[in-house]
Amino acid sequence: MVEYLVIGAGPAGLQMGSFLHRAGRDYLVVEADPEPAGFFRTFPRHRVLSTDDNWLFDGAPFSRYSKRAFPNADDLVRYLEDFARPLNVRYNTPVSDLSRFNARHVIIATGKKPHLPSIPGVENAETYASASTDPTEYAGKRVLIIGRGHSAFETADNISATARLTHTVGRTVQRIRKDGEEFVATIDGTGELRYDRVVVCAGFRRDTTLDHPQAHVLTGDSIKAIRHAARALHRTLEAEHHGVPWPHRRLRNRPDALAATIATRAGEIPDGLADVVVTQGQHALLYDEMPTAERNGFVVTSTQVRHYRRNELIAVERRLHRKPLEKFFSQQLAVPCIA
């Protein structure tokens, strides 16, 4: 019997494990591989990360591992290995059936896997995961790369100096067929083009194999998004199951004070989360980075402020600068602007 079961020892599972560890909860992180950070041991294939914002809460500064703007993926692997050491992680433990574990709460943090789009004939192509990273193998070749994200452009950059030509296209590929040693790709608006090799670099999709209505799913498009989503989920679990109030701070309940704080916070709130401001007399309580399903008071995202009263939406402000926000709060609080 375990209170919290976390599936996956990538950044999401390790970050949640760290929160549970520090809170003194009964938890177990299980990982199918013999070591953490399995995804980043393979991807990105060319071993260069797209950002240096790769730290987790309560971990060492990532700058101790790399000071590069675009770090090597192996530096992140070393960082996550060190981050995992104090945590209760059981390796070599694949999970195919949640009933095998007796846990009160299950958190699925299994990460992502390469996506294969539903293009007729795509099975004839190579994939980002299988294609060679040796640029000499593409010398003199005509190469079609399907995808318009990081994996596609890093692949194109790797072979551009040796390939005869490189085309990178997105969703306009309609079909692919093999004609002898060549590939014939039908591209919307262009027609049929011939290539020597086709590589599918269509990004990644979350592994939904273990999804269950009673389980919590933890994911994100970047490590920054992951660490903030993990903190929000942990705070939710602490409040619901352990009576720990959501962290908050007090603000003056005045249009100028609220506008100044919200104008700054709006640029810091990650996608999928929201700050919530609840007014109480002369003060207002700011609950930062809650799930956006919250329908109480002023709900602030990176793009707008929504005002709810008794769960009913009554006003929206999309100009997240001090003067428009001060006017908005003045109208909603029915008090004059200080300015």
Instruction: Tell me the series of helices and strands, N- to C-terminal.
Output: EHEHHEEEEEHEEEEEEEHEHEEEEEH
- Beta content comes to 25-35%
Roughly what percent helix? 10-25%
How many helices in DSSP terms? 7
- The count of strands amounts to 20
- Outline the low-pLDDT stretches: none
Instruction: Report the span from N to C terminus.
Output: 59 Å
* Major sheet description: 6 strands, antiparallel
The largest sheet has its strands arranged as: 15-17-16-18-19-20
Average pLDDT figure: 94
SS content category = alpha/beta
Give the C-alpha Rg. 24 Å
What gross morphology would you assign? globular
Description:
With 339 residues, the protein is α/β, with parallel strands linked by helices. The protein has helices at residues 11-22, 38-42, 73-84, 150-159, 223-242, 255-265, 322-333; strands at 2-7, 27-30, 89-90, 103-108, 112-114, 126-127, 142-146, 165-169, 173-179, 182-187, 191-195, 197-200, 204-206, 216-217, 249-252, 273-280, 283-291, 297-300, 305-309, 312-317. A six-stranded antiparallel beta sheet has the order 15-17-16-18-19-20. Strands 3-2-1-4-14 form a five-stranded parallel beta sheet, with helices on one face. Strand 16 and strand 17 (283-291) form a beta hairpin. Helix 1 runs parallel beside helix 5 and helix 6 packs across helix 7 (322-333). The chain starts with a strand and ends in a 6-residue tail after the last helix. The mean pLDDT is 94.
